[in-house]
Design a protein that fits this description.
single chain, 6 helices, globular, alpha+beta, four-stranded antiparallel beta sheet, 8 strands
């Protein structure tokens, strides 16, 4: 999520920018329904973590602005951070949310230290799988894991339940996702979420 401009927005796609690529358009969705004017800056000058998994899912699968606004509304209402402009970034004003975000983040970032070659993870809550993010390399994942993780944490803070799902269900989910048949895998990924390819190489897979 980027702040500024005439409204806060969420980036709607992955992208690799080669050296000297110049200016490139990128698709976005608004996460601040009731503002269309400049505040302190005409540019997007602040980066606000990453959106919750429910908003990410809406952006990736539905690609519908009204649906994105609906999810933003649910998120800020549950955290009691509604503002006149309805911006998602009002979460920063919730002391309780930020305390839980920091606690979750510290726990999982410390856990990742023991898995140096990790390329992704599956997030679960209650008896459901809430998402999965996998990158092409451990280096790519290492650079993105903290911001990606915050999307899952936000989901846990807002809608989380005590984990009840069996490991066998997670294993089944991953076996289907990681099938070695290229066409079948693409179909499974696109049905459950989305993927970013660069020169026909899978760079980032996101499923829900």
């Amino acid at each position: 999520v980027v702040k500024g401009g005439k409204q806060d927005r969420v980036l709607a796609q992955d992208m690799i920018l080669p050296p000297k690529s110049g200016k490139v358009d990128i698709s976005v969705f608004c996460v601040e329904k009731n503002r269309w004017s400049y505040n302190d800056s005409k540019s997007f000058n602040k980066y606000f973590s990453v959106s919750s998994n429910s908003i990410r899912k809406t952006v990736i699968q539905e690609q519908d602005q009204s649906a994105v606004w609906e999810e933003v509304g649910k998120t800020v209402k549950k955290n009691k951070t509604e503002t006149n402009t309805g911006t998602y970034t009002s979460l920063i004003n919730s002391k309780e949310y930020n305390e839980q975000l920091d606690e979750y983040s510290a726990f999982f970032m410390n856990a990742f230290k023991s898995i140096p070659n990790c390329i992704g993870f599956v997030g679960v809550s209650g008896d459901e799988i809430i998402g999965c993010d996998i990158f092409a390399t451990a280096d790519l994942f290492s650079k993105q894991k903290e911001t990606i993780l915050k999307g899952y944490i936000t989901e846990a803070v807002i809608n989380g339940e005590e984990v009840k799902i069996k490991y066998s269900e997670v294993e089944k989910y991953m076996k289907e996702l990681l099938t070695d048949q290229e066409e079948k895998q693409d179909n499974v990924i696109n049905e459950k979420g989305g993927q970013y390819k660069h020169k026909n190489k899978k760079i980032h897979i996101t499923t829900f």
